[in-house]
Automatic annotation (TrEMBL):
The lineage of its organism: Bacteria, Bacillati, Bacillota, Bacilli, Bacillales. Pfam families: DUF2621. InterPro entries: YneK. This is DUF2621 family protein. The chain crosses the membrane at residues 6-28. Keywords: Membrane, Transmembrane, Transmembrane helix. It comes from Lentibacillus cibarius. It comes from the Bacteria.
Length: 143
């Protein structure tokens, strides 16, 4: 019984170390996003800035579309993903000097904010919504 107990204690120790390592990895990533860049402002600060500057530009239809597009993201990470994507959409809207967030701006910002490895899931979701992605192909290829 003591051999089995010793093995269980060692396995429990490895499990705890593994879980702490995973948690530490995500905390470190968050720390790096808060670290100021060359301009003295962090990536998260820019996201918050763009969201704040464009929150009046969002119509209900675009909010619903964004909710639907981020639905494949696991619920645990969905809020973080939505903030990153909304920040990029806001950046695109301000750069193009738009008065409202349109579907075109939303999709362009979404593609730019999405990592290349997730583009196939994004394409699938856009096709499910019957959104023509041919005008946005250059965005998929540019990354």
């Amino acid at each position: 019984m003591s051999v089995i107990g010793d093995i269980l204690i060692v396995l429990w120790g490895f499990l705890l170390l593994g879980l702490m390592g995973v948690g530490g990895f995500f905390m470190f990533r968050k720390f790096l996003k808060k670290w100021p860049k060359e301009d003295g402002v962090s990536a998260m600060d820019w996201e918050e800035y763009y969201i704040e500057q464009t929150k009046h530009m969002w119509m209900d239809e675009q909010k619903e579309l964004l909710e639907d597009l981020v639905s494949p993201v696991p619920e645990l990470f969905r809020d973080v993903a939505k903030q990153k994507i909304a920040g990029k959409i806001g950046e695109v809207a301000l750069r193009k000097k738009r008065k409202i967030i349109t579907q075109d701006i939303l999709i362009e910002g979404y593609i730019l904010a999405t990592p290349k490895r997730d583009h196939k899931f994004l394409r699938k979701k856009l096709n499910q919504r019957k959104i023509d992605i041919s005008p946005y192909e250059y965005l998929f290829e540019s990354e």
